[in-house]
Design goal:
Largest sheet of chain A: 2 strands, antiparallel
CATH superfamily of chain A: Ferritin, core subunit, four-helix bundle
CATH class of chain A: Mainly Alpha
Strand content of chain A: under 5%
Organism (chains A, B): Branchiibius cervicis
Structural class of chain A: mainly alpha
Helix content of chain A: over 70%
CATH architecture of chain A: Up-down Bundle
InterPro entries (chains A, B): Ferritin-like, Ferritin-like_SF, Ferritin_actino
Shape of chain A: globular
Oligomer: homodimer
Number of strands of chain A: 2
Protein name (chains A, B): Ferritin-like fold-containing protein
C-alpha cells in the first residue's frame, strides 16, 4: 500500500518543455498508428463479415486519432515521423511479444492491451499544458472499442470454458509487458523524462506519483478482467 | 489471339437488374475492406516509421473507398453486410493463397495483386447504369498506391538481385489466382451473373467480351511486371 501522497504538476503553458511535449505527442501518435494496424489485423481475423465491418470501423477511428495527433505535431513545426521514430523499437517489442494467435486473442489484445495503453496515455496528459492536454483527451479513443470486444469475448467464453483460462493468462502477460514498456517509453529520451518525471523542476510526476499512476493502471486492468469473469 | 469482337452492354438505368448491382457493389465493397486490411498489414511490416506512415495513409484511403461503396448500398436500401456476405469465401481463399511472408512480398501484393483486382473492378463498371458506374470509377483507388509500392520494390530489387526471381514467381502466382478468383466471383450468384454475363438478355459481357476482359487484365499485369524489370 502506498502511504505517501504522490504529486503531479504541469507548470502551465509557458514553462512546459516543448521538446518533451513533441516527444509525448510522438508516443501517442505512434501508439495510435500501431493500434490502427493491430485492430485492422484483428478485424481481418474476424469470423463474420459483420464483425469484420465493426472492427474495420474501429481501426479507421484509430487512424483518425493518429491523424489528429500528427496534425498537432505539424502545427508545432515538428515532423511526425521524427517525433515517432524513437518509439519504433519499444513499440515493436511490445507487439512482437503480444502477437495474437487467433481471433479471441486478438480481441483480448484490443480489450485489455490497447485499454492499458489508452489509460496510460490519459494519465500522461496530466503533465501537459491544459490546451494540448484537452486536445489529446478529446482525441483518445472512447470506450466503444472496449465494449465491442467485451461483448464478443463474453460470448466466446460462454461457449468454451477452456478459453477463460487461456485469456486470463494472456491478460496477466499483457499487464506485465505493458508495465515494463510504459517505463521504457518514459525513459526513451531526456526531453520526455523531463516532461513526465519531476526531477526537482516541479514539472511532472514525482516517483511516488508515478508509482501511483502504475497502480491505477493495474486497478483498471483488474476491473476489466473481472468484467469478463477473469482473475487478473 | 482473339478474332471475334466481343461486346459488353449495360441496358441503361431502367433495366439494369438492381439485385445484380447490389451484388456487384457488394463485391467491390468487400474487396476494398479486404484491401484495407491487406495494406494495413503490409504497413505494419514496413521497416521504417516513414513507410509505416505512408502505407498507413493508403490503408485509410482504401477504407474511405469501402465506406463510399457501403454508403451507396445503404442508399439503395441494401445492408452492406448482406451484399458482401456471398464473397466472404472466395476472398478468403484468395487472401489465404497469397499471404505475404515479408515486407517485399507485401509490397508486391499491393503493387501487383491489388492492381489486378482494381483493373477487374473498373472493367465491371461497364455493365452498370451510368450513374453508379461513374460513382464507382470515382471511388476506386488511383495509381498512387501502385507508384508508392513500385518505388519501394525497385529500390529493393536493385539492392538484392535474388529478390527479382522470387517476386517474378509471386507475380505469376498472383495472376493465376486472380483469374480463377475473378471467375468464381462472377459465378457467385445468378443476380450477379445476369448483370455481368450476357446470356441472351443484351445486358453484360458476352463470352468473347469476357475473355477479352481477362486478356486485358493479363496485358496490364505484364506491363506492371515489366515496369519492375520482371517477366510476367
Amino acid at each position: 500500500m502506498i502511504e505517501h501522497s504522490g504529486t503531479v504538476a504541469s507548470a502551465g503553458t509557458s514553462s512546459v518543455p516543448e521538446a518533451g511535449v513533441a516527444s509525448l505527442l510522438g508516443v501517442l501518435a505512434y501508439g495510435e498508428l500501431m493500434a490502427f494496424f493491430d485492430v485492422a489485423r484483428v478485424a481481418e481475423m474476424a469470423p463474420t463479415v459483420r464483425s469484420q465491418q465493426e472492427l474495420g470501423a474501429l481501426a479507421a477511428r484509430e487512424y483518425a486519432v493518429y491523424e489528429q495527433l500528427s496534425g498537432r505535431l505539424r502545427q508545432m513545426g515538428v515532423e511526425p515521423a521524427e517525433a515517432m521514430q524513437p518509439f519504433h523499437e519499444p513499440f515493436d517489442n511490445w507487439h512482437a511479444r503480444i502477437t495474437p494467435a487467433d481471433w479471441h486473442e486478438g480481441l483480448m489484445k484490443i480489450y485489455a492491451g490497447a485499454a492499458i495503453a489508452t489509460d496510460f496515455y490519459r494519465e500522461l496528459t496530466d503533465v501537459l499544458d491544459p490546451q494540448t492536454a484537452a486536445m489529446v483527451r478529446e482525441a483518445l479513443p472512447d470506450d466503444e472499442q472496449a465494449a465491442l470486444a467485451r461483448t464478443a469475448l463474453l460470448e466466446a467464453i460462454e461457449q468454451d470454458d477452456r478459453l477463460a483460462g487461456r485469456l486470463a493468462l494472456l491478460g496477466r502477460r499483457m499487464m506485465g509487458e505493458a508495465l515494463s514498456q510504459a517505463q521504457l517509453v518514459a525513459l526513451v529520451n531526456d526531453d520526455l523524462l523531463d516532461l513526465i518525471m519531476d526531477r526537482g523542476t516541479g514539472q511532472g510526476f514525482d516517483l511516488v506519483g508515478f508509482q501511483q499512476l502504475l497502480a491505477r493502471l493495474g486497478e483498471k486492468h483488474t476491473r476489466r478482467m473481472a468484467a469478463l469473469g477473469l482473475d487478473a
